[in-house]
Amino acid sequence: VQLQASGGGLVQAGGSLRLSCAASGRSFSSYAVGWFRQSPGTGREFVAWISGGGGLTYYTDSVKGRFTISRDNAKNTVDLQMSSLNAEDTAIYYCAADRTSESFTVQEIFYDYWGRGTLVTVSS
What we know:
By secondary structure, the chain is mainly β. The chain contains no helices and 11 strands. Strand 7 and strand 8 (77-82) form a beta hairpin.
């Protein structure tokens, strides 16, 4: 599975962006997908997760109510809709796929495939 994240850019505080993670390969619904982010000078952190079938989602506390993760297995995509963005959301965002489609984890070691990141910059 190859993953490609896109949709990053520069946005003003309070604005919205929609990130997309496109996957190649078959059986994409067999993979759970997580979004992670890394801000300058910090380690990578978990942001959101969606199960292979799309029925389960989890979010880190700081984005609950502002971010929504969704997927379209027919198109092999997972999106992260981000709203009410603030400067603390500035980061490189990565998507990652986990073969264990229904088991939630925030631990990066359990993710089998990673895409290149897409930069989100929120100006205050």
